[in-house]
Amino acid sequence: MNASQAATRPMESVRVLLSEIIDYAGLFPPSQVSMPEAVINYATYRSSNYGWMLGRFVLPTARLDEFLEAASDLLPRDAQSRWQLAATAGEDINETVKIIREFNRANAERVVVDVLEVRANTASKIDNTVTILPEGVTAYFEISTGEALADLVTTLAIKGQRAKLRTGGVTPDAFPTSKQIIRFVRTCMAANVPFKATAGLHHPIRCFKPLTYAADAPQGTMHGFLNTLIMTGFARESYRVSLLEELMEEEFEEVFSFSELGVQWRDGHNLSNAQLSWLRQKGMQSFGSCSFDEPIADLRELGLL
Questions:
Q1: What is the pLDDT along the chain (305 residues), one digit of tens a residue?
Q2: Which fold has domain 12-297?
Q3: What are phi and psi of 71, to 5 degrees?
Q4: What is the gyration radius of the CA atoms in the chain, in angstroms?
Q5: Can you give the residue ranges of every domain in the chain?
Q6: Cα 163 from chain centre
Q7: Do 53 and 24 form a contact (C-beta atoms < 8 A)?
Q8: Which of 91, 85, 120 is nearest to 103 (CA)?
């Protein structure tokens, strides 16, 4: 990794690629901290030197009341700096939307649910959700990477919606293959469907690590979030699949080089800052992580922060 610039200020390419990239999901495995701890963590991250990398606070819709109780003393008093939440939907989408409407109506000056994450394995689930989606709330639909992928992405494109990809978990079998991720990304890019990723992207570069924080945790290969982001950029530029797969499975940090003007992978494969900005707007918009500290520590070790 090119770390020629002092870490006093991140390079412009790093800022463009990683601004508001991490949605904090500390309530979820493997961290699975308590609500008060997660809320304090988020408040701390917001005011840290790396707050520019922080996205939304992720929580189940069913725990919104619990969140308010834990966060009431920490929430800002003005709408300009209000917290933004990403709520995961419950089984009953109508009840989920009702809860979010009431929450936003009562608390919008200090905190707002402006993202809803929904599992949808059928086009009808997407249709039904879009029909009742509250104004100002953006939905990300977690869809399968199986045979129905193209049809579901087509539905999302027609409805002007966004996708969600699960990129890992707490067991090796929860991680999709590089080919599955690439197929998902290329399908979304072809249909102009932005997406977010969730789970398993704790580290910037592909690596073999323990999958939880337990002493006897299973180990497995984890996809890197830099690999995935940069692959998305190259997928938008119509790079061949074999090269995208090589990039997803790249484990050597030294072949990635950041400058003020963009990023290079190996020799001759470049993305400018304009292309990085485009991939964030129209491609991979964020990823959920139960840890904010871990990605930051890794990026600092790489010399990028």
A1: 654 443 468 999 999 999 999 999 999 999 999 999 999 999 999 999 999 999 999 999 999 999 999 999 999 887 778 999 999 999 999 999 999 999 999 999 999 999 999 999 999 999 999 999 999 999 999 998 888 999 999 999 999 999 999 999 899 989 999 999 999 999 999 999 999 999 989 899 999 988 888 888 889 999 999 999 999 999 999 999 999 999 999 999 999 999 999 999 998 899 999 999 999 999 999 999 999 999 999 999 999 99
A2: TIM Barrel (3.20.20)
A3: -105, -5
A4: 19
A5: 12-297
A6: 11
A7: no
A8: 85
What pTM was computed for the model? 0.94
Angle at 258 between CA 256 and CA 259, to 5 degrees: 150
Distance, CA of 145 to CA of 291 (rounded, Å): 25
Helices (H), the chain: 12-18, 35-46, 64-71, 93-107, 123-132, 149-159, 178-190, 225-236, 241-248, 273-282, 293-301
44: left (phi over 0), alpha (psi -120 to 50) or beta: alpha
- Cα–Cα distance, 195 to 181 (Å, whole number): 12
Specify the residue for token string 């408040």: 43
What token pair was written down for 146? 């199986």
Residue 85, Cβ neighbours under 10 Å: how many?
25
Which SS3 state, helix, strand or coil, does residue 38 take?
Answer: helix
